[in-house]
């Protein structure tokens, strides 16, 4: 009987630092306890040569192409990471497949090499210019910590994340996005244009004076979000280190305003989720992920969790929007082989 390898990889929530990975900035994600599991065995049929596959199978074919795998494989996938919710279901898929295939075929790839392969799968095969945050946290997450990722230097720094008497509430708006549709790529192109205009390698390192020197309009707004979000990440990490959760919450809320107004990647349902959570006592709230739908997160005192849930649900009902799904998350570990 042929050997089967089973591996799993987590979804993620980015606490702060949105759209900074491809701008040479920093972000602070945690891995979720919601995962994608890939079961992989050597197949008996012919390997499909046409890699122009639709839907989620394109991600799998992209991983195999990036790893240089041509032999037929039997692959089955199961997942409880919501698709299109901004929780990185795609990276959970590609990382679980990459880890399982590497183990099954004895490729001997390092985690860095697997990370590069999964990024290539999205960038070069699927057509989503991902910056690498999602794949990195999926492969390198540690329980009980967020991971400060600096995409200018490539460093990964664990930051303890266990807020006392507070919960991180995920609010899934049920508005689904598809980053492959082009809006994500358009934001990245705007940032590249702004960096070129300023003669910067990394837009996240732009100063206020440089931002002011940009022509008014869209590029200036995009650059302002990137530069100020980088400052918010640094402030958020400091707040966590000293236990100033009120300041951490305020920075989350400021991040959402910037994503809404300057980067223009929010939507009415995300704005409503943030507004209703704050009204009910959340210390801070923001959209998370690429935007255009998906999830918001709120930092909520444990004693106010029910009130926040009710406030958000009532707000959505009053707006005749689809009922949101809400759940509490903590910081979990990264991808692993379960059966090898």
UniProtKB/TrEMBL annotation:
This is Galactokinase. GO terms for cellular component: cytosol. It comes from Nocardioides marmoriginsengisoli. One of its GO terms (biological process) is galactose metabolic process. Residues 5-41 form the Galactokinase N-terminal domain. SUPFAM superfamilies: GHMP Kinase, C-terminal domain (SSF55060), Ribosomal protein S5 domain 2-like (SSF54211). Residues 237-303 form the GHMP kinase C-terminal domain. Residues 65-141 form the GHMP kinase N-terminal domain. The lineage of its organism: Bacteria, Bacillati, Actinomycetota, Actinomycetes, Propionibacteriales. Transmembrane segments: none annotated.
């Amino acid at each position: 009987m042929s050997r089967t390898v089973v591996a799993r990889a987590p979804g993620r929530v980015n606490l702060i630092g949105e759209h900074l990975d491809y701008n040479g900035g920093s972000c602070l994600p945690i891995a979720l306890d919601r995962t994608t599991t890939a079961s992989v065995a050597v197949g008996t049929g012919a390997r499909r040569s046409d890699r122009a596959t639709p839907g989620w199978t394109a991600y799998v074919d992209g991983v195999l192409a990036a790893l240089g795998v041509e032999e037929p494989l039997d692959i089955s996938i199961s997942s409880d990471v919501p698709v299109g919710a901004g929780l990185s279901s795609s990276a959970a898929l590609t990382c679980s497949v990459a880890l399982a295939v590497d183990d099954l075929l004895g490729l001997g790839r390092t985690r860095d090499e697997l990370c590069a392969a999964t990024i290539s799968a999205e960038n070069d095969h699927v057509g989503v210019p991902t910056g690498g945050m999602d794949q990195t946290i999926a492969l390198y997450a540690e329980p009980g910590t967020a991971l400060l990722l600096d995409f200018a230097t490539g460093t990964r720094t664990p930051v303890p994340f266990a807020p006392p008497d507070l919960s991180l509430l995920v609010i899934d708006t049920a508005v689904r996005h598809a980053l492959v549709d082009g809006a994500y790529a358009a934001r990245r192109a705007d940032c590249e244009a702004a960096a070129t205009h300023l003669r910067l390698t990394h837009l996240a390192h732009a100063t206020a004076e440089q931002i002011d020197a940009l022509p008014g309009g869209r590029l200036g707004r995009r650059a302002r979000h990137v530069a100020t979000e980088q400052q918010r990440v640094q402030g958020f990490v400091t707040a966590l280190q000293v236990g100033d959760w009120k300041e951490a919450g305020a920075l989350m809320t400021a991040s959402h305003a910037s994503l809404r107004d300057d980067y223009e990647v929010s939507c009415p349902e995300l704005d409503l989720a943030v507004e209703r959570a704050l009204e009910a006592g959340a210390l801070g709230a923001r959209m998370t992920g690429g935007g255009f739908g998906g999830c918001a997160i709120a930092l909520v005192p444990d004693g106010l969790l029910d009130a926040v849930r009710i406030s958000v649900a009532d707000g959505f009902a009053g707006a005749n929007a689809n009922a949101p799904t809400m759940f509490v998350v903590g910081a979990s570990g990264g991808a692993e082989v379960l059966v090898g």
